[in-house]
Structure formats: structure tokens, C-alpha cells
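User: Hand in any protein.

Assistant:
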Amino acid sequence: MKKLLILSAMCMAMTAQATVLRVSNVTNSGAPYSNIPAAIEAAVDGDTIMVDGSPDKYSETTGTTGSLNINVRIVLMGPGYLLTQNGVQSNGDLTAEISKNIKISEGAAGTIIQGVSLTGTEIDIQVPNVVITRCKVDASLYISSNATNCVLHQNLFTDYVGRSNYNNYVAYNAQVTNNIFTRVNNSSYGTLRAFNESTIAYNTFTKKNTSSTSNAVQLAQMSGCTIEHNVFFGPELTLANNTLLDNYWGDGDSPYQELTTDLEVKNADLGEQKDAMAGKGAFNGDDPYVISGIPAGPVIQDITVPATVEQGGTLNVTIKLGIQK
């Protein structure tokens, strides 16, 4: 899959006159909004909601639903994840963690979520053209049959993706590319499941099944999909009615089995399996996985503020920017 396809999908959620709404739950941050629901209520189609990293979780919900409901087409952007663990930040973990369930519903088609840590129980996508990219997703993620053309790209998934045995939750024409999946599956339902006419490419499934369940699989309920250049550990699947091309099926133990971060996966010693995995998995292809999910575009790397300024003097603030592609 070409990078152009991802960029085209992301551009659908932007307009020439989009407004940036900043959210921070840190006391005295100066941000106009202290919680995400308030920013969503103020947003219009195409706006970007920038969520600051914080030592506290973003746990507010929309009304009495118990979920964070996104009902307007926005870009919801955080600073990335595993920033301290991966050595990206040295002064504390600045992740923006959303700890509630997320529902992306009518009015939010084309929404993009990137650079945040999602730790609720589930993410429910009900509208088309949604992009989840460069996120750490610890929740189960479900894609409604109405939510066509969704993109899951460059994410770290630690739970199931797709909803088993629900006729109204089969993802159509989706792109699942350059992700890392760390779930140990213990059933025939699959770690990644319920996709039709979709592209499943350049993903790394890190765990070898350790369950005694003989029919446990990593992919299930796939139909008409192109499944290529992925790394799997476990028995090779035939997956009738799908096209399988140039995947790696590891029969031995996974070199990633006990690793906990995406950086560790990237730097893993693959041993004798290295040559067989070449050109496959999340760190290959035209748009490889990005460590810690740092969003594309300008990134603040450092801010220097004087401790004191004389009365009437000038406050000179130095901001160091980097560009993440």
C-alpha cells in the first residue's frame, strides 16, 4: 500500500479554515479546554483537537453515555506514547491517555485519531473513512459494517481488533497496515477478525500462541482480503477465499514473545529467522511503523523559559521543533 493512500484519507478530515482547539487537564496549563468532550462540542467539521500529554488520564465522557462520543469530523491528536520507555522524552511520560470507551458515530465520518493512548474497554467505529494511526490501543476495536474504507495504520494493538460473529460488525474495504499486534490469542475467533475485501499488509504479530486450544489463530473470519508481507507466529493458515502473498509463518518460538515496547520489537535479535522475515512486518513497506507514534508534522522537542524576567522586560521563550514524517 502506498503512502499516498494514507495521506489522501487523512486529508479528507481537514479544511482550509480548520481551527486548532487545545485541550489540557494539567492545572494552570492555559489551554482553552480542560477536557476532550468540551472541545468536541465546540468543534466543527475539519477542526483539530490537540490533546496535551499529562500525568493524569483523560476520563470525561459525553453526557450520560459512559463513552467519549465523537460526532463531528475532527482530527484528534496527541503527542505519542511510550515516550519515556523508548527514550523519546527524558522528563516524564507526556502521553495523552484516553481511558474511556470511544464511539465514533454519525457526523464523524472521516475522523482521524493519532498519537494518543487508548485504554478504555472498546472503540466502536460506526461511520466510514475513519483513520486510527500512530496510537497505542489497549482496547478492543470494532468496525461496523457501515464503517467502510477505514484505515488502521502504524498502531500498537494489545487487544483484539474486529468483532466476532456479528453480522453488523464486518469491516469492508479497510486497510490494516504496518501495525504491531501483541495479543496472545486463545480461541478460534482470531486476534484480527471480521474483515471483507480488505488489505492486511506489513503487520507484525509478535506472540506465538501459548494456549492449549488447538484451533487458536491470529486471523479469522476473513473473506476476499489481500493478506501480504505480514509476520505471524503459529501454524500457517490457508484462509479460503482470500489472497495470501509473501507472509512469514514462524513455526518456532517468536523472538518478540516477552518484549513490551515497539522499540524492543524493532531492535529484537531475530537470529536465524532474520532472512526469512526480510521485507515483511510493520517496519517495512512504503510507510513503516513509527516508534512511539509521534504524529506527522512539527513536533516540539524542547522549550526553554527564563526563570525570572525583570518588570517591563521581554520574556524570551525558545522552542526547538523537529519534523516527524
Observations:
- The chain is about 10% helix and 30% strand.
- The helical segments are 3-11, 36-42, 262-266, 274-277.
